[in-house]
Amino acid sequence: MNPNVTFQEYRKKALTINKINYWDLPINTRITLSQSIKEAKLNGKSITLKRLNNLVKKNSKINNKISSILFFRDSRELSLNLPLSLNNLNFVELYSLMVSEGSYKTEFRLHVPEPFFHDIFAKSLKNLFNKKIEKHIRVKENKGVLRSTAPTIIRHLIPIPKHIPKIILDNKKYCKRYLQIAFEAEGSPIFVGSKRYLSLKRNVDVTPILKNKINYPKEKRIYFGQLKKDYPKLAKKINNMAPKTLVGERLILKKYFNIESILKPEAIRINKTSYRVGEISARWALYIYADSVNRFINEIDFIGKRKKSITKKMSKIKGYKSQYSTLKMMKKMAKNGIFKVSDFVKEMKKEGYISPRTYLWRYEKKGRIKRINRGIYKIIS
Question: Measured between alpha carbons, how far is 332 from 339 in angstroms, rounded to an integer?
Fold first, then answer.
């Protein structure tokens, strides 16, 4: 996906759904009825949706007559109330967790070491369905890593698109909770010495673009700079293949919380695991710097103790202003487009910058300013 799309462009392609009806399920799903359906002459029996659809036209009233779904070769029963509402924080939490850490294409499973993620998994399912679902969630531990597995049929009841759905995009409260879980699952607070930033990384499949066109060893991470050097045309194509989820995350950070971020491809890798052998993935990274770090901590923050302890330390350090603010500072102090280096350095240090002169070099290289005399610069654009 083009990483530079606008929020409205992204929203237009998002899934529009806020509830699940019986007709959204696979036609081979077997259901049980709590009330009779006169048109079909059915009363308290189980029936496949395929047969039901042949007997009766689609009708939302039938939702209320369905008491459960049969699964695992029709030997187990999942009670539910249709339509299933997705307009709630339970869906938001489960969606964010599964799109980040879950397995949902052929099963509905969470396999991560953090116990609180498994608590969210179970709590969200229980609140979306009912307490009876707890007996169908299997939890196992292997080498210190927990694995929670829900009935496979759940993947047809809880949509997990890569493109963040409208029901989340349009709600600031939902976006905040979504981001808290997403950053806890896939994000990192980096605080080393004077370095202070946040990152969120996701992968995207680029096999159709790169397969049989690059010569790199399997499993070795090839950074994007190397790819650009070796295969510039292919690298250019990857530049427009950002993960849909990550693009959406960048947009809601800006729209609702005024958090600036940088989104760019970081590396590629040819997989050699048995079920993904030969597939090529590109890792993209979203970075949050400067004063936007404090904004993230104050407005969103992580939810786990370890990462929250890091952001607590980070919040005590005065955040740098963004580079865009640096240029505005130059323009503000300039007279007829000309400013003194000494004045610029003085103001920058007040804002917490360690090396103000670095920005002079950067902007001169970009052609935004020009040195016209010793210690004096002119703003070009």
Answer: 9
Q: According to the CATH classification, is domain 85-163 in 3.90.1150.10?
A: no
Q: Do domains 85-163 and 172-314 have the same CATH topology?
A: yes
CATH topology of domain 172-314: Endonuclease I-creI (3.10.28)
Calculate helix-pair angle for 341-350, 357-365, nearest 10 degrees: 120
Going by their DSSP bridges, the two strands 145-150 and 108-112 should be labelled as antiparallel
pLDDT tens across the length of the chain (381 residues): 999 999 999 999 999 999 999 999 999 999 998 877 766 666 557 889 998 988 888 999 999 999 999 987 777 899 999 999 999 999 999 999 999 999 999 999 999 999 999 999 999 999 999 999 999 999 999 888 999 999 999 999 999 999 999 999 999 999 999 999 999 999 999 998 778 999 999 999 999 999 999 999 988 999 999 999 999 999 999 999 999 999 999 999 999 999 999 999 999 999 877 566 789 999 999 999 888 999 999 999 999 999 999 999 998 876 555 555 688 889 889 999 999 999 998 888 776 666 788 889 888 887 889 999 999 999 987
Q: Give me the phi and psi of 358, to 5 degrees please.
A: -60, -35
